[in-house]
Amino acid sequence: TRSLKLNSTSSWFKSLFVRKVIPRKDAHSHLLAKKEDNNLYKIQFHNVKPECLDAYNELCEDVLPSIHTDPEYPCELVGTWNTWYGEQDQAVHLWRYRGGYPALTEVMNKLRQNKKFMEYRNERGKMLLSRRNQLLLEFSFWNEPVPRPGPNIYELRSYQLRPGTMIEWGNYWARAIEIRQQNQEAVGGFFSQIGSLYTVHHLWAYKDLQSRENTRNAAWQRDGWDEVVYYTVPLIQHMESRIMIPMKNSPLK
User: Fold this and answer.
1) Are 219 and 180 in contact, with CB atoms under 8 Å apart?
2) H/E run at residue 151
3) Among candidates 96, 224, 232, which has minimal Cα distance to 160?
4) What global pTM score does this model have?
5) pLDDT tens, 104-130?
6) How many CB atoms lie within 10 A of CB 155?
7) Over the stretch 219-232, which tens digit does the pLDDT of each residue have?
8) Which one of 78, 96, 97, 141 is CB 3.0 to 4.6 Å from 103, fit for a cystine?
9) Residue 187 burial class via C-beta count within 10 angstroms: exposed 0-12, middle 13-18, buried 19 and up
């Protein structure tokens, strides 16, 4: 009996320190994404056989812009790059679908009937070692990516967050992005919906590697940046940086 009383008292005492979980009323995609737009993004990572990279680039430069400019397809090629530093012999393509999932489905169905695109897919398959993609939404507090003149280099910083921390990340970066807009380097910010989940991608543009270094160092001189870094680093499980060079016909030069 004494043992039961002790266990009961111990359980009651511990309950005083258990954090109450407040249930969320909405998905984080609804809380963080832009409500005025119904845009869906797809990012593609293609690992190319080293000896095929030039031929792969020529193939993409011939076919992808024709889809981008065709009004029959409710999609846009936001940017297309080769990785310069990071994973080598890799191509990265970013597409925007205006109209969300229905637009994505419409484009996919039409491309299956596009003879030139199907030939492109067959040729592309011979040149690749592997490929993967993700479907993304854009953060409401980032600007929508728009074409910009070049030449620029682009940095894609990808973060794998701990599950359950996306809202917290968004709250800090909603303030941080104002600090990082001083030199117009912010291009776009996205979070995954399908593919590897709890993934965030931040896309930045710089004139060269030295301007990247200067811009990033200057952020530490602005109020609030150190706090953002301090509180967001514990949310990250893994992070990766790619420096990318635009392909010839990329809208982001």
Assistant:
1) yes
2) none
3) 232
4) 0.87
5) 999 999 999 999 999 999 999 999 999
6) 22
7) 999 888 999 999 99
8) 97
9) buried
Q: What are phi and psi of 105, to 5 degrees?
A: -65, -40
Q: What is the pLDDT of residues 29-84, one digit of tens each?
A: 556 876 656 899 999 999 999 999 999 999 999 999 999 999 999 999 999 999 99
> CA-CA-CA-CA torsion for 99, 187, 249, 34, nearest 10 degrees?
0
Q: Report phi then psi at 136, rounded to 5.
A: -130, 155
Among the listed residues 26, 34, 31, the one whose alpha carbon sits nearest the alpha carbon of residue 188? 34
From 219, 239, 215, 237, select the one nearest 228 (Cα to Cα).
219
Q: Identity (one letter) of the amino acid at 62?
A: D
Q: Give whole-number Cα distances, 243 to 108, 158, 232, in Å.
A: 29, 12, 22
Average pLDDT over residues 74-103: 96
Task: Extract the tokens encoding 197.
Answer: 């989940």
Which distant-in-sequence residues (6+ apart) come within 8 Å of 85 by Cβ? 241, 242, 243
Do residues 179 and 228 lie in contact, with contact meaning Cβ atoms separated by under 8 Å?
yes
Helices (H), the chain: 2-15, 28-32, 53-69, 100-112, 115-127, 166-179, 209-219, 225-232
Amino acid at 181: Q
